[in-house]
């Protein structure tokens, strides 16, 4: 039988294998359309070890991605996982940015049945460029891939990143960044 006990600090708390049930290895509801009536027009429904305890230590997880027409899954990164995405409905523009010093924008249009890979740790996104709802499934090679949404991280940190640091980081005059406006969009 699968041993979901572990000693790694990356793992969730261990469960006594004698107490494991089928519910530790299943998740219901991934067939349900995610609510995309939000500012970005998308919803990510995760299936990580927090949702399926039996994934603990297995090095895999997945997400369902629903995107309304013109909606996006904003710029984000998974610090502990590579992601492979397959489109089930709709048309998506996908892309990632390579690491320094090149910072190349690699992009592709995906239709139903197409697959795209986002390498571990690289900033990436998905945008629905079709006229109908889009659905994709992403699989990740970590039970706990993490997600860092770039705008939320930069402008929604608590406490806030000082304006002079943001101005230097973006290499602009600090009066050109509407920091208070940006921060108000991402406060928790």
Automatic annotation (TrEMBL):
<protein>
    <recommendedName>
        <fullName>Germin-like protein</fullName>
    </recommendedName>
</protein>
<feature type="binding site">
    <location>
        <position position="83"/>
    </location>
    <ligand>
        <name>Mn(2+)</name>
    </ligand>
</feature>
<dbReference type="InterPro" id="IPR019780">
    <property type="entry name" value="Germin_Mn-BS"/>
</dbReference>
<feature type="domain" description="Cupin type-1">
    <location>
        <begin position="28"/>
        <end position="178"/>
    </location>
</feature>
<feature type="binding site">
    <location>
        <position position="76"/>
    </location>
    <ligand>
        <name>Mn(2+)</name>
    </ligand>
</feature>
<dbReference type="Pfam" id="PF00190">
    <property type="entry name" value="Cupin_1"/>
</dbReference>
<keyword id="KW-0479">Metal-binding</keyword>
<feature type="binding site">
    <location>
        <position position="73"/>
    </location>
    <ligand>
        <name>oxalate</name>
    </ligand>
</feature>
<feature type="binding site">
    <location>
        <position position="124"/>
    </location>
    <ligand>
        <name>Mn(2+)</name>
    </ligand>
</feature>
<dbReference type="InterPro" id="IPR011051">
    <property type="entry name" value="RmlC_Cupin_sf"/>
</dbReference>
<keyword id="KW-0964">Secreted</keyword>
<feature type="binding site">
    <location>
        <position position="78"/>
    </location>
    <ligand>
        <name>Mn(2+)</name>
    </ligand>
</feature>
<comment type="similarity">
    <text>Belongs to the germin family.</text>
</comment>
<dbReference type="GO" id="GO:0030145">
    <property type="term" value="F:manganese ion binding"/>
</dbReference>
<keyword id="KW-0464">Manganese</keyword>
<dbReference type="InterPro" id="IPR001929">
    <property type="entry name" value="Germin"/>
</dbReference>
<dbReference type="InterPro" id="IPR006045">
    <property type="entry name" value="Cupin_1"/>
</dbReference>
<keyword id="KW-0052">Apoplast</keyword>
<dbReference type="InterPro" id="IPR014710">
    <property type="entry name" value="RmlC-like_jellyroll"/>
</dbReference>
<feature type="binding site">
    <location>
        <position position="83"/>
    </location>
    <ligand>
        <name>oxalate</name>
    </ligand>
</feature>
<dbReference type="GO" id="GO:0048046">
    <property type="term" value="C:apoplast"/>
</dbReference>
<keyword id="KW-1015">Disulfide bond</keyword>
<feature type="binding site">
    <location>
        <position position="78"/>
    </location>
    <ligand>
        <name>oxalate</name>
    </ligand>
</feature>
